[in-house]
């Protein structure tokens, strides 16, 4: 069980890097952990499955120790190249622009309700930081997912291009925050960014934890 928990996100990551579809990644996961899909056979008594089957079921039922599983995962996750290392920084970088840009949208909403709050400078700071973070996260995301324009995984394709669009639109929002006299367009752009950021977080969860990770379907 410990090995399965440790390896699930890694398997999804490898599947996306290899440009597999969701169905192919699910198949790969089953092939990587066949014992997890034969619980019924392991629950059958020896008299029903025979001596040879009993020995095989017993072997399948013997998991690695937690220390062995951890050591195997550490060895598997060793960095193989600079681009591999940069790609692994994507999850770290992705959280900052999400927080900053959503806070910028919230600040602008408060300004709409109460202009006297004087949050213009704060909003500009949040948008600027969020745009820089979004650009960095998008670039690292391309290292993580591979440099190609089309993906066989629909989820990865949406995540890739939505993230790239977020970075571009965030740069536009930065320009508007510093240059535009009328804040209406800025507010529209921030609203679009907020929706795109929530969608991006959902797609990231789908990639790491698998289809229907929220359990709503």
UniProtKB/TrEMBL annotation:
Pfam families: DUF2231. The chain crosses the membrane at residues 92-113, 125-147, 159-178, 185-203. Keywords: Membrane, Transmembrane, Transmembrane helix. InterPro entries: DUF2231_TM. Residues 89-209 form the DUF2231 domain. This is DUF2231 domain-containing protein.
